[in-house]
Protein backbone atom coordinates (compact mmCIF):
# COMPACT_ATOMS: atom_id res chain seq x y z
CA UNK A 1 0.00 0.00 0.00
CA UNK A 2 1.42 3.32 -1.03
CA UNK A 3 0.89 6.56 0.93
CA UNK A 4 2.49 9.94 1.38
CA UNK A 5 4.92 10.30 4.26
CA UNK A 6 5.54 13.47 6.24
CA UNK A 7 8.58 15.19 4.78
CA UNK A 8 11.02 16.15 7.54
CA UNK A 9 11.75 19.59 6.17
CA UNK A 10 15.26 20.37 7.40
CA UNK A 11 15.42 23.56 5.38
CA UNK A 12 12.29 24.91 7.08
CA UNK A 13 13.35 23.92 10.61
CA UNK A 14 16.87 25.27 10.03
CA UNK A 15 15.32 28.58 8.92
CA UNK A 16 13.28 28.69 12.16
CA UNK A 17 16.41 28.02 14.22
CA UNK A 18 18.28 30.75 12.33
CA UNK A 19 15.45 33.21 13.10
CA UNK A 20 15.71 32.28 16.78
CA UNK A 21 19.49 32.78 16.71
CA UNK A 22 19.12 36.16 14.92
CA UNK A 23 16.81 37.38 17.68
CA UNK A 24 19.24 36.26 20.34
CA UNK A 25 22.20 37.91 18.62
CA UNK A 26 20.27 41.20 18.40
CA UNK A 27 19.51 41.08 22.12
CA UNK A 28 23.07 40.08 22.95
CA UNK A 29 24.56 42.95 21.00
CA UNK A 30 21.94 45.46 22.23
CA UNK A 31 22.94 44.64 25.80
CA UNK A 32 26.59 45.36 25.05
CA UNK A 33 27.62 41.75 24.33
CA UNK A 34 30.06 40.60 21.71
CA UNK A 35 28.95 39.48 18.24
CA UNK A 36 29.65 35.73 17.84
CA UNK A 37 32.46 35.08 15.36
CA UNK A 38 33.03 31.86 13.37
CA UNK A 39 36.20 31.08 11.44
CA UNK A 40 36.29 28.43 8.71
CA UNK A 41 39.38 26.90 7.12
CA UNK A 42 39.06 25.40 3.66
CA UNK A 43 42.04 23.65 2.07
CA UNK A 44 42.05 23.13 -1.71
CA UNK A 45 39.28 23.79 -4.22
CA UNK A 46 36.96 20.77 -4.08
CA UNK A 47 33.60 21.93 -5.45
CA UNK A 48 31.39 20.24 -2.85
CA UNK A 49 33.52 21.48 0.06
CA UNK A 50 33.38 25.02 -1.35
CA UNK A 51 29.58 24.80 -1.52
CA UNK A 52 29.26 23.54 2.07
CA UNK A 53 31.62 26.18 3.44
CA UNK A 54 29.91 28.96 1.49
CA UNK A 55 26.55 27.76 2.88
CA UNK A 56 28.04 28.08 6.37
CA UNK A 57 29.26 31.61 5.66
CA UNK A 58 25.86 32.58 4.21
CA UNK A 59 24.23 31.28 7.38
CA UNK A 60 26.57 33.41 9.52
CA UNK A 61 25.60 36.51 7.55
CA UNK A 62 21.93 35.69 7.89
CA UNK A 63 22.03 35.45 11.70
CA UNK A 64 24.35 38.42 12.19
CA UNK A 65 27.53 36.54 13.16
CA UNK A 66 30.95 37.76 12.17
CA UNK A 67 32.90 35.28 10.06
CA UNK A 68 36.40 34.74 8.73
CA UNK A 69 37.03 32.42 5.80
CA UNK A 70 40.59 31.20 5.25
CA UNK A 71 41.15 29.36 1.98
CA UNK A 72 44.56 27.68 1.58
CA UNK A 73 45.96 25.91 -1.47
CA UNK A 74 45.94 22.09 -1.66
CA UNK A 75 49.73 22.21 -1.22
CA UNK A 76 49.78 23.86 2.23
CA UNK A 77 52.01 21.93 4.66
CA UNK A 78 50.63 20.36 7.80
CA UNK A 79 52.87 22.55 9.96
CA UNK A 80 51.69 25.73 8.26
CA UNK A 81 48.08 24.66 8.74
CA UNK A 82 48.77 23.88 12.40
CA UNK A 83 50.28 27.35 12.84
CA UNK A 84 47.12 28.93 11.39
CA UNK A 85 44.99 26.93 13.82
CA UNK A 86 47.18 28.05 16.73
CA UNK A 87 46.77 31.64 15.59
CA UNK A 88 42.97 31.34 15.57
CA UNK A 89 43.03 29.46 18.88
CA UNK A 90 44.79 32.47 20.39
CA UNK A 91 42.59 35.11 18.72
CA UNK A 92 40.31 36.33 21.46
CA UNK A 93 37.71 37.67 19.05
CA UNK A 94 37.07 34.29 17.38
CA UNK A 95 34.59 32.01 19.18
CA UNK A 96 34.38 29.03 16.82
CA UNK A 97 36.66 27.30 14.31
CA UNK A 98 35.91 24.62 11.77
CA UNK A 99 38.40 22.94 9.45
CA UNK A 100 36.40 21.57 6.53
CA UNK A 101 37.01 17.86 5.89
CA UNK A 102 38.27 15.99 3.93
CA UNK A 103 41.84 17.35 3.96
CA UNK A 104 44.49 16.45 1.35
CA UNK A 105 46.26 13.09 1.74
CA UNK A 106 49.49 14.60 3.13
CA UNK A 107 47.69 16.14 6.11
CA UNK A 108 46.41 14.16 9.10
CA UNK A 109 42.75 15.06 9.71
CA UNK A 110 42.90 13.52 13.17
CA UNK A 111 45.89 15.62 14.25
CA UNK A 112 44.58 18.82 12.70
CA UNK A 113 41.17 18.39 14.32
CA UNK A 114 42.77 17.67 17.67
CA UNK A 115 44.75 20.92 17.53
CA UNK A 116 41.55 23.02 17.69
CA UNK A 117 40.88 24.45 21.14
CA UNK A 118 38.00 22.36 22.50
CA UNK A 119 36.08 25.48 23.56
CA UNK A 120 36.19 26.70 19.92
CA UNK A 121 35.54 23.25 18.40
CA UNK A 122 32.03 23.98 17.09
CA UNK A 123 32.04 20.83 14.92
CA UNK A 124 32.36 18.81 18.14
CA UNK A 125 35.19 16.76 16.58
CA UNK A 126 37.93 16.94 19.25
CA UNK A 127 38.52 14.02 21.59
CA UNK A 128 37.46 16.10 24.58
CA UNK A 129 34.06 17.08 23.16
CA UNK A 130 33.62 13.57 21.82
CA UNK A 131 34.21 12.13 25.29
CA UNK A 132 31.84 14.64 26.83
CA UNK A 133 28.94 13.33 24.72
CA UNK A 134 28.41 10.84 27.53
CA UNK A 135 28.56 13.43 30.27
CA UNK A 136 25.63 14.93 32.13
CA UNK A 137 27.08 18.27 31.06
CA UNK A 138 28.06 17.78 27.39
CA UNK A 139 30.52 20.14 25.69
CA UNK A 140 30.01 21.13 22.07
CA UNK A 141 27.99 18.33 20.43
CA UNK A 142 28.95 16.99 16.97
CA UNK A 143 27.01 19.16 14.53
CA UNK A 144 25.37 16.59 12.24
CA UNK A 145 24.08 14.22 14.95
CA UNK A 146 22.91 17.22 17.00
CA UNK A 147 21.09 18.59 13.93
CA UNK A 148 19.38 15.25 13.25
CA UNK A 149 18.23 15.00 16.85
CA UNK A 150 16.84 18.53 16.77
CA UNK A 151 14.97 17.74 13.54
CA UNK A 152 13.36 14.63 15.07
CA UNK A 153 12.44 16.56 18.23
CA UNK A 154 10.85 19.46 16.38
CA UNK A 155 8.62 16.97 14.54
CA UNK A 156 7.68 15.38 17.92
CA UNK A 157 9.02 12.01 16.88
CA UNK A 158 9.14 9.63 19.81
CA UNK A 159 12.59 8.14 20.30
CA UNK A 160 12.50 6.55 23.77
CA UNK A 161 12.12 2.78 23.56
CA UNK A 162 12.19 2.76 19.75
CA UNK A 163 14.56 0.62 17.73
CA UNK A 164 17.00 2.93 15.97
CA UNK A 165 19.18 1.42 13.26
CA UNK A 166 22.21 3.52 12.32
CA UNK A 167 23.84 2.56 9.02
CA UNK A 168 27.36 3.99 9.02
CA UNK A 169 29.93 4.17 11.80
CA UNK A 170 32.10 7.21 11.00
CA UNK A 171 33.70 9.27 13.73
CA UNK A 172 31.84 12.42 12.60
CA UNK A 173 28.33 11.06 12.03
CA UNK A 174 27.43 7.40 12.58
CA UNK A 175 29.36 6.59 15.75
CA UNK A 176 28.37 9.68 17.77
CA UNK A 177 24.76 9.42 16.48
CA UNK A 178 24.51 5.85 17.82
CA UNK A 179 25.84 6.97 21.20
CA UNK A 180 23.49 9.95 21.46
CA UNK A 181 20.43 7.88 20.50
CA UNK A 182 21.14 5.25 23.14
CA UNK A 183 22.80 7.22 25.96
CA UNK A 184 20.70 10.41 25.87
CA UNK A 185 17.51 9.38 24.10
CA UNK A 186 17.05 5.79 25.32
CA UNK A 187 16.48 4.28 21.90
CA UNK A 188 17.59 0.68 21.44
CA UNK A 189 20.35 1.07 18.90
CA UNK A 190 21.85 -1.18 16.25
CA UNK A 191 24.92 0.18 14.43
CA UNK A 192 25.63 -1.24 10.96
CA UNK A 193 28.82 -0.74 8.97
CA UNK A 194 30.84 -2.21 6.16
CA UNK A 195 31.27 -5.58 7.96
CA UNK A 196 27.58 -5.99 8.78
CA UNK A 197 26.12 -9.15 7.31
CA UNK A 198 22.63 -9.12 5.79
CA UNK A 199 22.19 -5.37 6.16
CA UNK A 200 18.52 -5.63 5.16
CA UNK A 201 17.74 -7.91 8.13
CA UNK A 202 18.73 -5.05 10.43
CA UNK A 203 17.28 -2.12 8.50
CA UNK A 204 13.92 -3.93 8.25
CA UNK A 205 13.70 -3.87 12.06
CA UNK A 206 14.15 -0.11 12.35
CA UNK A 207 11.48 2.19 13.77
CA UNK A 208 13.99 4.98 13.12
CA UNK A 209 16.49 4.39 10.31
CA UNK A 210 19.43 6.79 9.96
CA UNK A 211 21.78 6.31 7.00
CA UNK A 212 25.23 7.89 6.59
CA UNK A 213 27.40 5.82 4.27
CA UNK A 214 28.06 7.97 1.20
CA UNK A 215 26.74 5.08 -0.96
CA UNK A 216 24.00 6.67 -3.10
CA UNK A 217 20.77 4.66 -3.21
CA UNK A 218 22.06 1.95 -0.82
CA UNK A 219 18.72 1.69 1.00
CA UNK A 220 15.90 0.30 -1.19
CA UNK A 221 12.18 0.13 -0.49
CA UNK A 222 12.23 -3.56 0.51
CA UNK A 223 14.85 -2.87 3.21
CA UNK A 224 12.51 -0.63 5.21
CA UNK A 225 9.60 -1.40 7.54
CA UNK A 226 6.14 0.12 6.88
CA UNK A 227 5.80 3.29 8.98
CA UNK A 228 9.51 3.79 9.67
CA UNK A 229 11.06 7.22 10.23
CA UNK A 230 13.90 7.54 7.71
CA UNK A 231 16.77 10.04 7.96
CA UNK A 232 19.13 10.27 4.98
CA UNK A 233 22.46 11.91 5.78
CA UNK A 234 24.20 10.91 2.55
CA UNK A 235 24.83 13.52 -0.11
CA UNK A 236 26.68 12.56 -3.30
CA UNK A 237 27.12 14.55 -6.48
CA UNK A 238 26.15 12.48 -9.54
CA UNK A 239 27.31 13.75 -12.94
CA UNK A 240 24.61 14.56 -15.47
CA UNK A 241 24.32 16.52 -18.71
CA UNK A 242 20.63 17.20 -17.99
CA UNK A 243 21.23 20.46 -16.10
CA UNK A 244 23.47 23.54 -16.13
CA UNK A 245 25.46 22.57 -13.04
CA UNK A 246 26.49 19.23 -14.52
CA UNK A 247 25.49 17.22 -11.44
CA UNK A 248 22.55 16.40 -9.19
CA UNK A 249 22.52 15.39 -5.53
CA UNK A 250 21.59 11.90 -4.39
CA UNK A 251 21.14 10.55 -0.89
CA UNK A 252 21.95 7.09 0.48
CA UNK A 253 18.23 6.26 0.37
CA UNK A 254 16.31 5.41 -2.83
CA UNK A 255 13.81 8.14 -2.10
CA UNK A 256 10.64 7.22 -4.04
CA UNK A 257 10.65 3.53 -3.06
CA UNK A 258 11.37 4.25 0.59
CA UNK A 259 8.98 7.23 0.81
CA UNK A 260 6.17 4.88 -0.25
CA UNK A 261 6.65 2.95 3.03
CA UNK A 262 8.00 5.52 5.50
CA UNK A 263 5.86 7.55 7.92
CA UNK A 264 8.47 10.36 7.85
CA UNK A 265 11.46 10.92 5.60
CA UNK A 266 14.16 13.57 5.01
CA UNK A 267 14.74 14.81 1.45
CA UNK A 268 18.17 15.34 -0.15
CA UNK A 269 18.81 18.21 -0.52
CA UNK A 270 16.79 20.12 2.09
CA UNK A 271 17.00 17.59 4.92
CA UNK A 272 20.00 16.96 7.15
CA UNK A 273 22.42 19.35 5.36
CA UNK A 274 20.71 22.57 6.48
CA UNK A 275 20.29 21.12 10.02
CA UNK A 276 24.07 20.53 10.26
CA UNK A 277 24.59 24.20 9.50
CA UNK A 278 21.96 25.29 12.03
CA UNK A 279 23.73 23.18 14.72
CA UNK A 280 27.03 24.75 13.83
CA UNK A 281 25.48 28.17 14.45
CA UNK A 282 23.95 27.00 17.75
CA UNK A 283 27.34 25.67 18.85
CA UNK A 284 29.02 28.95 17.88
CA UNK A 285 26.47 30.95 19.87
CA UNK A 286 26.98 28.66 22.87
CA UNK A 287 30.78 28.92 22.61
CA UNK A 288 30.58 32.70 22.30
CA UNK A 289 28.37 33.10 25.37
CA UNK A 290 30.63 30.84 27.40
CA UNK A 291 33.73 32.78 26.41
CA UNK A 292 32.02 36.07 27.30
CA UNK A 293 31.23 34.72 30.77
CA UNK A 294 34.84 33.58 31.22
CA UNK A 295 36.16 37.00 30.22
CA UNK A 296 34.02 38.62 32.91
CA UNK A 297 35.17 36.29 35.69
N1 LIG B 1 24.20 16.36 5.28
C1 LIG B 1 25.22 16.57 6.08
O1 LIG B 1 25.21 17.49 6.86
C2 LIG B 1 26.37 15.66 6.07
C3 LIG B 1 26.43 14.72 5.09
N2 LIG B 1 27.45 13.82 5.05
C4 LIG B 1 27.37 12.80 4.01
O2 LIG B 1 27.02 11.57 4.62
C5 LIG B 1 27.68 10.49 3.99
C6 LIG B 1 28.52 9.75 5.00
O3 LIG B 1 29.47 10.62 5.55
P1 LIG B 1 30.59 10.15 6.58
O4 LIG B 1 29.95 9.49 7.74
O5 LIG B 1 31.47 11.32 6.79
O6 LIG B 1 31.33 9.06 5.64
P2 LIG B 1 32.51 8.01 5.93
O7 LIG B 1 32.95 7.54 4.60
O8 LIG B 1 33.46 8.56 6.91
O9 LIG B 1 31.74 6.83 6.67
C7 LIG B 1 30.80 5.99 6.03
C8 LIG B 1 30.40 4.86 6.96
O10 LIG B 1 29.51 3.99 6.28
C9 LIG B 1 30.03 2.66 6.28
N3 LIG B 1 29.64 2.02 5.02
C10 LIG B 1 30.10 2.28 3.77
N4 LIG B 1 29.47 1.47 2.87
C11 LIG B 1 28.61 0.71 3.56
C12 LIG B 1 27.70 -0.32 3.20
N5 LIG B 1 27.58 -0.71 1.92
N6 LIG B 1 26.97 -0.90 4.18
C13 LIG B 1 27.09 -0.51 5.46
N7 LIG B 1 27.94 0.43 5.86
C14 LIG B 1 28.69 1.04 4.94
C15 LIG B 1 31.52 2.82 6.42
O11 LIG B 1 32.13 1.67 6.91
P3 LIG B 1 33.79 1.65 7.08
O12 LIG B 1 34.10 2.51 8.28
O13 LIG B 1 34.20 0.29 7.33
O14 LIG B 1 34.33 2.23 5.80
C16 LIG B 1 31.58 3.98 7.41
O15 LIG B 1 31.34 3.56 8.74
C17 LIG B 1 28.44 11.13 2.83
O16 LIG B 1 27.62 11.10 1.68
C18 LIG B 1 28.66 12.55 3.29
O17 LIG B 1 28.82 13.45 2.21
C19 LIG B 1 28.41 13.82 6.02
C20 LIG B 1 28.43 14.75 7.01
C21 LIG B 1 27.41 15.78 7.10
N1 LIG C 1 34.70 20.08 9.47
C1 LIG C 1 33.63 19.67 8.80
N2 LIG C 1 32.40 19.93 9.30
C2 LIG C 1 31.26 19.53 8.64
O1 LIG C 1 30.14 19.77 9.11
C3 LIG C 1 31.43 18.84 7.38
C4 LIG C 1 32.73 18.60 6.91
N3 LIG C 1 33.80 19.01 7.63
N4 LIG C 1 32.92 17.95 5.73
C5 LIG C 1 31.81 17.54 4.90
C6 LIG C 1 30.51 17.34 5.65
C7 LIG C 1 29.30 17.53 4.79
N5 LIG C 1 28.58 18.65 5.35
C8 LIG C 1 27.48 19.29 4.79
C9 LIG C 1 27.10 20.55 5.16
C10 LIG C 1 26.06 21.20 4.52
C11 LIG C 1 25.37 20.60 3.51
C12 LIG C 1 24.30 21.35 2.81
O2 LIG C 1 24.15 22.55 2.96
N6 LIG C 1 23.49 20.69 1.99
C13 LIG C 1 22.44 21.28 1.22
C14 LIG C 1 22.73 21.27 -0.29
C15 LIG C 1 24.12 21.60 -0.65
C16 LIG C 1 24.41 21.55 -2.15
O3 LIG C 1 23.67 22.22 -2.91
O4 LIG C 1 25.36 20.84 -2.57
C17 LIG C 1 21.18 20.46 1.45
O5 LIG C 1 21.33 19.26 1.78
O6 LIG C 1 20.09 20.99 1.28
C18 LIG C 1 25.72 19.32 3.13
C19 LIG C 1 26.78 18.67 3.77
C20 LIG C 1 29.27 19.13 6.41
N7 LIG C 1 30.36 18.42 6.65
Characteristics:
297 residues; alpha/beta; Rossmann fold; 2 domains; 3-stranded parallel sheet; binds 5,10-Methenyltetrahydrofolate
Q: What report would you give on this structure?
A:
With 297 residues, this protein is an alpha/beta fold. The chain folds into 2 domains: 33-117, Rossmann fold, CATH 3.40.50; 142-272, Rossmann fold. 41% of the residues lie in helices and 16% in strands. The protein contains 10 helices and 11 strands. It has helices at residues 10-30, 47-63, 78-90, 109-115, 127-131, 143-154, 174-184, 199-203, 255-259, 272-296, and strands at 6-7, 37-43, 66-72, 96-99, 163-167, 188-192, 208-211, 229-232, 236-239, 247-250, 264-265. The chain has a 6-stranded parallel sheet with strand order 1-11-8-7-5-6. β5 (163-167), α7 (174-184) and β6 form a beta-alpha-beta unit. α2 crosses α10 (272-296). The longest helix has 25 residues, at 272-296. It is globular, with a radius of gyration of 19 Å. The protein starts with 5 loop residues before the first strand and ends with a helix. The mean pLDDT is 97.
Amino acid sequence: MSHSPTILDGKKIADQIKDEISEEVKKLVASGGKTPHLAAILVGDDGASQTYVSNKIKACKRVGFEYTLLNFPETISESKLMAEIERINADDDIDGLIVQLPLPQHISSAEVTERIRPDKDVDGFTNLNYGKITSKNPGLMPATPYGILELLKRYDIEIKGKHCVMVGNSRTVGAPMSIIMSYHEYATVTTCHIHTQHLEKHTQQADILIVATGKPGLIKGDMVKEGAVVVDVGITRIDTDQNERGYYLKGDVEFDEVAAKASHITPVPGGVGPMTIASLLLNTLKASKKRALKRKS
